[in-house]
Amino acid sequence: MSNNCRAINYSRSQIESVAMRMFICLVIYVAAGSPAIAQTVVTEITDSDPISDYLNAIETTEAERSAYSAELSDLYFGLGKSHFSKREYERARQAYQRGMQIERVNYGLNSLSQTPYLLSIAEAESFLGNWDESQNALENLYQINSKAYGENDPRMLPVLDELLDWYMDTYSERGQSGGYQNLVISERLSNRMARILNKSVPVEDPQAAERYRKISHLHYFIANHIKQYGEPSESGLTINAESTTKSPNSTSHQHYRRGKAALQKVVESLEKQEDISDSQKALAIAELGDWYLVFGQRMSASKAYKLAYESLQASTESQQLTETLFGQPSIIEFTTLETSKKLREQELQVSMVVSKAGVPGKMEILNPPENISKNEVRAILKDIRSKRFRPRLVDGETTESSIVFPYSSKQTQG
């Protein structure tokens, strides 16, 4: 995911910009104590620059109140957002840090209100290439929350969600070594999440299934990284630090087991929730089958697929559901943690035969563009060949079938 995409996703909408201006007017009204002054400001800032608006509001508040007035922290936060949206990351960081300093003066060094400031500081530091400083800000965020709630308190789960998403969202920007460091930290966070879920959260909790799914997808991500690049011993960081072996196969098997256990929890959680549809439950079982398949456990995969198929037969819409969910092969992707978007510059149509084991073969690009080279074709077919597909199910049994697969020629590789 490019820096530009991240900056665009982070900017505010036009509606929020209007709300920000109204907030500035309110601050000035409170500071000046005059609706007439506030009305004058409304007229003057209709077409003004947000950064100037914030700076003027900060100057007014400091003059009327003090340099550490509680209202200033929000203004500095908004100023940081405005700088960030213009890719002025150094100035954004400075504004966030000033806002956080005011929060600490008013509410204490360990105040939870620092959380959005620390997240924003980490984001700004990452755009400046200061990954260690980003990690320090996020570690500070975790420590503040864990002191307030306790490490094993369920209220830590949203914090862990946020941190996991951040580290996985920036994974592709860090290169092989930096990406590995992100995965090491992410696994530690996921272990903390799993400990809280297992000890303190009922399995039927509405959010439990999605968090267990996130944990399983992380283990796939780690196993895939180690398969591609190996585990660098010189980094000083080790995934599965308790392991006594460095064998890639052994490491992969550990992630297979942990991811499988998490997906089994997903199935259990959904089964115990009354408001979950039959199709959602069947897909959870099928995803467990996908997990078996990509790790080479074909017999277990077939059993899981058949169970998913049979679970739909009691439904009044069984025929339609089974056709929709299992009527043709579908690519297997464990992408809960892949928050970056695929770039679909050019979509190609690739005909192929998917075997009972989910392996693509007999591939051909239909009506390929005239400017595509033989090397590009080979790279595309090699990439597809490395993927696995959930096979078509007929009467609950996996079967070979043909499909036309839409392939984006520009993709973010996970």
Helix and strand topology:
Layout: H1 3-10, H2 14-32, H3 35-44, H4 50-64, H5 71-85, H6 89-107, H7 115-127, H8 131-149, H9 157-169, H10 175-200, H11 208-229, H12 248-271, H13 278-294, H14 298-311, H15 318-326, E1 330-331, E2 347-354, E3 360-366, H16 374-385, E4 389-390, E5 392-394, E6 397-399, E7 401-408
Task: Please explain how this structure is put together.
This protein is mainly alpha-helical and 414 residues long. Among the domains are: 1-149, Serine Threonine Protein Phosphatase 5, Tetratricopeptide repeat, CATH 1.25.40; 330-408. The chain is built from 16 helices and 7 strands. A 3-stranded antiparallel β-sheet has the order 3-2-7, with helices on one face. A two-stranded antiparallel sheet has the order 1-4. A two-stranded antiparallel sheet has the order 5-6. Helix 4 packs antiparallel against helix 5, helix 6 packs antiparallel against helix 7 and helix 12 (248-271) runs antiparallel to helix 13. The longest helix is centred in the middle third of the chain and has 26 residues, at 175-200. The termini are close together. Mean pLDDT is 85; it is low at 1-19 and 241-245.
